[in-house]
């Protein structure tokens, strides 16, 4: 179990380092179907793993690859709704949660594959500035939705933050990756805190998974800065759709 967790940790960490999201898309299914943890334990374990590896993955991008103001606004908005998501999580059947997980993944993946109608947006003006009057409401709404899903599904939110930052807020992929990683750290911490009341976690599995993920995310973060935006975006979308199909199939057959 420990070796399996470490192997999946390498994959999750590499994904986070390259595209700034998607780690939980792999982490939750990997912990449930690969390692054999119940969903109640997989969710907080996933939050620890993804939060820690995202913190490491953002290190190569700290100076020029993060929009700090947007990251803090979106992260703060999500902190509040993460507790609401965790409360709803306790009321729903695990199969329903996994099917909801798959449905949201399909939506995000398809949107990432669709060509953007416009370049930039209120949050990424051509000159590099931000039009806060129109950007701020979008940023807060994005944070609230992602935070709720963080508490509900045990995800750091990167698989939604990446499409939201590029499609809704108009950030270039190079800036999206680092900004997404900072938001994931904030959301993961809030989501984990929301689950403290009924915490179920296997610390040995968590340590093996997180250690491998942190090492891989740091290495992949350095490589990712040299890969074209379009290739990262398309690869991320395809991976999301493949994992969505697998999760949906497993939930329906279980």
TrEMBL record:
It holds the Pfam family TauE. Keywords: Cell membrane, Membrane, Transmembrane, Transmembrane helix. It is found in: Cell membrane; Membrane. One of its GO terms (cellular component) is plasma membrane. Its main location: membrane. InterPro entries: TM_pro_TauE-like, TSUP/Inactive_protease-like. It comes from the Bacteria. It is a multi-pass membrane protein. The chain crosses the membrane at residues 37-59, 66-84, 96-114, 135-161, 167-189, 201-223, 235-253. Belongs to the 4-toluene sulfonate uptake permease (TSUP) (TC 2.A.102) family. This is Probable membrane transporter protein.
